Amino acid sequence: MIIDEILKLFEETNAQQFITIIEKAIKIMHQERKDQTIREFKIVEDLIIADSIDLNYLIIGDIHGDIETLVNILKLENVEEEIRKGHLITIFLGDYGDRGEHSPDVYYLLLNLKLEFPDGFIMLRGNHEGTDDLLAYPHDLPLFLIEKFGQEGFQVYKKIKSLFDTLYLSFVVKGKFIALHGGIPVEASNLDDIAYARKLHPKRKFFEEILWNDPMDENGFERSYRGAGMLFGPDISYKFLHRNNLKCLIRGHEAVRQGYYITHAGRVVTIFSRKGPPYFNEKAAYLKININELENLEHIKNFIRTL
Ligand SMILES: [Mn+2]
Predict the structure, then answer these.
(1) CA-to-CA distance for 211 and 95, rounded, in angstroms?
(2) CA separation for the pair 47, 6 (Å, rounded)
(3) What would the pLDDT profile of 254-280 be if each residue is shown by its tens digit?
(4) Kindly report the CA angle at 125 between 124 and 131, in degrees rounded to 5?
(5) Is 128 a catalytic residue?
(6) Ligand 1: distance of its center to the CA of 228 in Å?
(7) Among 168, 130, 207, 199, which Cα is nearest to 38's?
(8) Out of 128, 181, 201, 253, which one is annotated catalytic?
(9) How do residues 87-101 score in pLDDT, each as one tens digit?
(10) CB pairs under 8 A, 24+ apart, for 259-263?
(11) Per the confidence metrics, is the pTM higher than 0.85?
(12) How far away, in angstroms, is 12 Cα from ligand 1 center?
């Protein structure tokens, strides 16, 4: 199994070999952006748009260095074989590193998988992959890299940072769902506001809000307790989803106790896919969606899996 091979290689890898892997992954994503396609999906700047065709989506939320849970999910879902058959796409919602000592392992595994199956893995950007003016703390990824590689770890870190800008912001399946890390920007009205958010940063707040926002129960919006982003109410979710003919938002970002949390009358699904300290969630959750079976909001519950 390729996952085990990659993990074994990681034990022996040196900084320069790691940097080469990152460079190759960046090159693949640059090419995708140049071609404006990945598989049969269309790429518009930082947004990937898929038609609603018969496909399975494995959607994984925040990992934060928890390599064990990540590997468990990938093996449980037989990802390697399913991707080889062309029936499965795996989408990550961001927050790969920080707060877990195996953050370097997570990057090494995911980037190698991207090299092996370029069409099978899509990495979105989380607030822990932010720009210099919007970095989340604690940002201990560089420390874990230095621990493994010594001072050369800093070169690896610099290369990983250059990868952040090639990560996509969002994935949409027409008529079905939008996936992104944090939330819907309170002033966003159409998908172009998502696609071009990075380009408009910092003039507009869309980029910050996609990465940092959280849902709240009351209508309207307010400044987030996190120090960046906003809290957005059910009226904002409804308006954006309705206007763009989407059923629901799938996002990560919050360490919810059961690993998942559904709010805004079923329209917002939070998944958190890691376990263990420093978080207190009892379970990790992820989604395995068969797109043909997602016809109404009620169905989304059927696709949640926990471990
Ligand atoms: Mn986050």
Answers:
(1) 10
(2) 29
(3) 999 999 999 999 999 999 999 999 999
(4) 160
(5) yes
(6) 11
(7) 168
(8) 128
(9) 999 999 999 999 999
(10) 259/283, 259/284, 259/285, 259/306, 260/285, 260/304, 260/306, 262/300, 262/301, 263/215, 263/217, 263/234
(11) yes
(12) 30
